[in-house]
Amino acid sequence: MKITMTVNGRPCSGEVEGRTLLVQFLRDIQGLTGTHVGCDTSQCGACTVHVDGRQVKSCTMFAAEAEGAEVTTIEGMANADGSLSVIQQAFQDHHGLQCGFCTPGMVMAAAALLKDNPRPSEAEVRAHLEGNLCRCTGYHNIVKAILAASGQAVAVAAE
Ligand code: FES
Ligand code: FES
């Protein structure tokens, strides 16, 4: 079947099967490989995107279910001039990544959190990230980055 949705502000369509997952549509058909697949059990959150403004693990949704939706992926998170968004810059400034595999999902989760809760506590950040796993165990700096992106003072990571 043919499906159409808006991805990062651009109309996108493609032929999918009923069983095609949204993450497969984004990566394999649209070539948006910034959305990662880190598990096959819906647990890691590396595939997190926004669908109609809601945080979704794109491996848990069929592509056809996103017909007509507004989807945002990590490729849509930079500023219009190509510079890093506040959240992305904070991840860089606070060393919120090691191998970077979980980072797209972490950034998308962070953006969803800050949209609903612009000044979260550390506990709220940690609770929100429960569905996102970092195998490099970089949670401390990820949390710092998100707090910094919310405008709260945190110590700058040592160079
Ligand atoms: S790939 Fe979707 S949760 Fe792991
Ligand atoms: S930075 Fe490596 S998995 Fe998180």
TrEMBL record:
Residues 1-77 form the 2Fe-2S ferredoxin-type domain. This is 2Fe-2S iron-sulfur cluster binding domain-containing protein. PANTHER family: OXIDOREDUCTASE WITH IRON-SULFUR SUBUNIT. GO terms for molecular function: 2 iron, 2 sulfur cluster binding; metal ion binding; oxidoreductase activity. Keywords: 2Fe-2S, Iron, Iron-sulfur, Metal-binding, Oxidoreductase. InterPro entries: 2Fe-2S-bd, 2Fe-2S-bd_dom_sf, 2Fe-2S_ferredoxin-like_sf, 2Fe-2S_ferredoxin-type, Beta-grasp_dom_sf, Diverse_Oxidoreductases. The lineage of its organism: Bacteria, Pseudomonadati, Pseudomonadota, Alphaproteobacteria, Rhodobacterales. Gene3D superfamilies: 3.10.20.30, [2Fe-2S]-binding domain. It holds the Pfam family Fer2.
